[in-house]
Amino acid sequence: VKKLEKIYSGYLTKELKHVLHYFLFSCYTGLRFSDVKNLKFSNIYKENNQTYISIVQKKTTGAMTLPLGKKALSYMPESGLPTQPVFEVYSNQATNRLLKNIMKLAGIHKTISFHCARHTFATIALELSGDIASVSKLCGHTKISTTQIYAKVLQSSKRNVIGLMDMM
């Protein structure tokens, strides 16, 4: 994410910056591609100095309220009409094609799709908080077992760290 933020603030073509804009927003919200695409200004509200997104997820049809942090807000457009989309999102195929170019420019040598933003959000949130129940709710998962997939990723990271320490 840090590499992507670095190239976001540098020179990119308008098209690449546009895609990176809503990709980074998803990295800080965990929203699926379909939910970013369908997000309208009417889904955003403020309460007690906190900004929230309230949506019905396209995939699960479950209602979800998500508080937005400063990083997510930094990628939000200022304002728009209630029925106006927050982001003008390209098709999933076009977005993923452009993400490949962005990753090359950032020096990231992995195959990345838009869904990786959601994985990034969940993994970082779990790593920072250790609170699987809250992360599950933030992702809008209907079962905590879905969130546990990200916890397994963290377990392998922990094993790698211990392995490195054993080599000292």
Structure description:
The protein is mostly helical. Helix content is 57%, strand content 10%. Strands 1-2-3 form a 3-stranded antiparallel sheet, with no helix packed on it. A hairpin with a 2-residue loop joins strand 1 (44-47) and strand 2 (50-56). The longest helix has 23 residues, at 144-166. 24% of the residues are buried. The model has no long low-confidence stretch (mean pLDDT 87).
List the helices and strands and how they pair.
Elements: H1 2-8, H2 14-29, H3 33-38, E1 44-47, E2 50-56, E3 63-67, H4 70-74, H5 92-106, H6 115-129, H7 132-139, H8 144-166
Antiparallel strand pairs: 1-2, 2-3
Major beta sheet summary: 3 strands, antiparallel
How much of the polypeptide forms β-strand, as a percent range? 5-15%
**Secondary-structure content class:** mainly alpha
Integer-rounded radius of gyration: 17 Å
Q: Give the topology string: H per helix, E per strand.
A: HHHEEEHHHHH
Number of helices: 8
Which spans of ≥5 residues are poorly predicted at pLDDT below 50?
A: none
Amount of helix:
55-70%
Q: How far apart are the first and last residues' alpha carbons, in Å?
A: 29 Å
Widest sheet: strand order? 1-2-3
DSSP E strands, number: 3
Shape: globular
Mean pLDDT: 87
Short description:
With 168 residues, the protein is mainly alpha-helical. Helix content is 57%, strand content 10%.
Keywords summarizing the entry:
mainly alpha, 168 residues
